[in-house]
Specification:
Structural class: mainly alpha
Distance between the termini: 44 Å
CATH superfamily of the largest domain: Winged helix-like DNA-binding domain superfamily/Winged helix DNA-binding domain
Order of helices and strands: HHEEHHHH
Helix content: 55-70%
């Protein structure tokens, strides 16, 4: 199945609400706009974090790579919302080199 055909097949199975949510993810990914992520030099050394929190994107991505599910993360961090994880994954995907570097830096610290 081609790269485009697979999402088309999934779209056919989605509700209108799911399609709207998917569209938001695509738009954010294309525009590299990450409204739920901010970098502030006074918060976590300037590492990109989920807004309203001090939870860095690299930490969430590292946990996911180690096998944590979204449900695990939402339970472990009660201030997180599902939308925050969507934003985190989009940011991590668009800034993979930065996230990999931050993970390495914090693992060796």
């Amino acid at each position: 199945m081609s790269v485009v055909k697979e999402p088309e097949a999934l779209l056919a199975k989605m509700s209108r609400a799911e399609k709207a949510q998917f569209l938001q993810v695509v738009v954010r990914d294309i525009g590299e706009a990450f409204p739920g992520v901010e970098s502030n030099p006074d918060v976590m050394g300037g590492d990109p974090c989920i807004v309203r929190t001090r939870i860095p994107i690299w930490l969430l991505e590292q946990a996911r790579r180690l096998g944590a599910t979204e449900a695990d993360l939402l339970a472990d961090y009660p201030s997180l919302r599902a939308e925050d994880l969507v934003n985190a994954w989009a940011y991590a995907r668009a800034h993979q080199d930065e996230i990999d570097r931050l993970i390495q830096e914090h693992e060796s610290a």
